[in-house]
Amino acid sequence: METWSIIQPPPGTFETPMVDVSTITRKFLDIPYASQSSSQKLDIYLPKEGEGPFPTLIFIHGGAFLFGNKQDTQLLQALDGINRGYAVVSVEYRLATEAKFPAGLFDVKAAIRFLRAHAAEYKLDPNRFASCGDSAGGYYVVMAAATQNNPAFEDLSMGWAEYSSAVSAVVSWFGCFDMLRIRQTVPADSPLADPNFPDIDKALLGAPSTDIEGLMYFTNPINFITSDFPPIYVTHGTADVIVSVEQSLLLAEKLKAVLPAEKYEVEILEGFNHGGFEMRWNEKEYIDKTFTFLDRFMK
C-alpha cells in the first residue's frame, strides 16, 4: 500500500497544506497538457504494482475558482485510488485570477483529451476514465460531463482535437451548480457572506451574475444534463458554510428527472461542513462510499 503525509505551511502564512507525494513509487509530475499557461499541468500517480492499463480517476481541485493547487490536501480522498487499483490524475487549471470562464472548463477538457491521447504511455485505460472534484472542482467535473463533446464548450485548438473529453463516471463533493443562486443560498455565517470576500461569480465571469443573467444560462451545468449524462455520485453536508447543500439538491432534482435510479446516487450528510472545514470527508468510511460507486462502472 502506498502512503503519504501532509506538509504543513509555515506558521502565520495563508498557504494551503500540501500532500507529500515523495514516497509514492510510480508517478509523473508537472506534465504540460496545453501551452497557453504555465498552470496547464497535471500529475499522474499509478498503483504500486501492475502494468495496467488502469482505470483512471481524474481529480479537479476546488478553491472558489480563485485558489487551490493540484497537490494540496483536497487531493487526499481521490489519491487513495492508487491503493484501490486506479491511476489517479490531478489537474492544475487556470484560476479565475488568470483567465475568466470558460478557460477553466476548456482546461479540464483539454487535460482529458491529452490523457486519452497519451494513455498507453502512462498505462491508463482510455475507455475507463472517471472525473471527480470538490467545490469548484465539483462544478467543473459536472459541467464538463454535461457538455462533453459539445464543440461550443470545448477549445479544440488547445490540442488533441481528435480525442474525446468524455468520461464514464463522475463524482462531485460539495459542488456548486447554479451561479445565479449561489449567493442567495449562502448561510449568514459563511465567509462568502463577508462583503470583503471576493465576489466569486464576478471573479469567474468578469461581471456580477445579476448583470448578465442571460449569459448565466450557459454557465449552469443543470441546463445541459440529459439522459446520456454518465453515472454520478454526489455528496454534500447539511452544515456547509461555503456552498449551501441546496446546490446539490438542485442537481439531484435534475438527475432524478433525466436518469434512471441506478445511474446516480446523492448522499446528504447531516452536520458535515465544507471541504477544509470538515476532516471527516477524509475518513475511510466516506472514501469507501466514493469508490464503491466508481467500482460499479469502472471495474
How would you describe this structure in keywords?
299 residues, alpha/beta, Rossmann fold, eight-stranded mixed beta sheet, two-stranded antiparallel sheet, 8 helices, 24% helix, 19% strand, globular
Assembly form of the protein? single chain
State the order of secondary-structure elements, H for helix, E for strand.
EEEEEHEHEHEHHHEHEH
Q: What is the molecular shape? A: globular
Radius of gyration: 18 Å
At CATH level 3, the topology is Rossmann fold
**Mean pLDDT score:** 90
Top CATH class: Alpha Beta
**Strand order in the sheet with the most strands:** 3-4-6-5-7-8-9-10
The chain-level structural class is: alpha/beta
Total beta strand runs: 10
How much strand? 15-25%
List the total number of helices: 8
Specify the CATH architecture: 3-Layer(aba) Sandwich
Measured distance between first and last alpha carbons: 19 Å
Helix share, percent:
10-25%
Main pleated sheet: 8 strands, mixed
Count of separate structural domains: 1
In terms of per-residue confidence, which ranges show pLDDT below 50 for 5 or more consecutive residues?
A: none
Q: How is the secondary structure organized here?
A:
Layout lengths: L4 E3 L10 E3 L6 E6 L8 E5 L8 E7 L15 H4 L7 E5 L11 H15 L6 E11 L1 H11 L22 E5 L5 H4 L17 H6 L7 H4 L15 E6 L8 H13 L5 E6 L14 H15 L1
Parallel strand pairs: 5-6, 5-7, 7-8, 8-9, 9-10
Antiparallel strand pairs: 1-2, 3-4, 4-6
